[in-house]
Amino acid sequence: MPSEGIAAAYDAGSAHVSQRMSPKAAGVIFAATYGAFLSITPTVVALLGIFLKPIATEFGWPRSEVAGAISVVALGNAIAYPFAGRLADRIGPRRTILMGNALLGISILCLSLARKEPVSFYLLFLFAGAAGSMPSTMVISKLIAEWFDRTRGFWMGFCGGIGNGLGATAFPALAAAVLEAGYGWRTGFLTVGSIVLLTGFPILFFLLREAPIRSRTGPADSVVLEGMTFRQVMRSPMFWWIFSIVPLGAGCMTSMFTTIVPILTDRGIPLENATMVVVTFALTTLVVEPVVGFLTDRTSSPKLAAPLFFSAACGLWLLLHAHNEPLLILSGMLMGVGAGVEYCILTYLLSRYFGLKELGAISGIAYSGTLVFGAIAPLFLHGVFDMSGSYDAAVYTIVGILIYSSVAILTFGKYRYAIHGRAG
Fold first, then answer.
1. 107-120: per-residue pLDDT in tens?
2. Does this model's pTM top 0.90?
3. Which of 161, 259, 282, 289 could form a disulfide with 344 if both were Cys (CB 3.0 to 4.6 A apart)?
4. Architecture of domain 3-10+22-411
């Protein structure tokens, strides 16, 4: 890979906070972080955890039917991620993110028009899921990977962790405030959609830029990056080993994030306390992702993630057994650690094991796997509840999956496309 393009994006200095970072690179970091703040997990998926009961009450539906919207969003993401990744490879991440931001904002506004008719209800969420694949953490991570090399893990963790963490904290709190003020879930979607469109697009348009390697080597489709081709990766056992570990765990943790409020309120925990656990989960993710990114830049394999995956399993177990606020908060923290690691390392692992050549298309398949697992898990969780009146058996199953992830990742070898020593 030509080194001068990425090196120019982040001048020599401290490994992670260069005093001479260019204003353009700093603007990219800010815009990428704000883009993650407005991504589909904070603006749609997290809101469904707050709006699940009000929607079910208004429509007279069982919870599993409303929770099906989470699965439909995941399905839309899963279908669209490979196309979004290919698009980012060909036209560049910036234009892909800009188009996606506009489509996502419009789709969220449309959610406020949902009616008591299952097909049209789910189609709205399917559209939101497909739109959300374009301004997603996956595409943002691809942009960061092209801008930075030596500090790639840190900036991926920073943008994803700070952005998604703040978003998943702010938007559920905003949604709860809308409900408590008596305005209803429709007003909640209208408010969030307006924020995505009116604040997101201008910031992304003016501050987000393609990596210098793209602007200096000609048209986007002529850029030559180091790494394996999509076909080569699809034939690689290493890819499918990663696929069976990280996307599986990440999908399960996403489903748990949206199920915390129903689990706790069913046990008699007040809504404000249950929401605080969700906020703690999100805030912990915010802190963990940059830290894990910092550490991954200094390691030659991802084995450091093993105990962090295990912490998520402990957090889930505690969620079912804690009876006081301090232990509930601890549960949220432990789950946030696991979720932060799952999402922080996925694109990083793919970039280090397979290179940047067709990272968008490769990531699209991996993220589709995450969303497939994320689509199945809510149906499983709420289906078990509808049959048994309890989430316990389903949550224990996810605990087992996370323990598997923590053990399996210990088998990973050294990165193939290691850090080249460039400043960025």
1. 999 999 999 999 99
2. no
3. 289
4. Up-down Bundle (1.20)
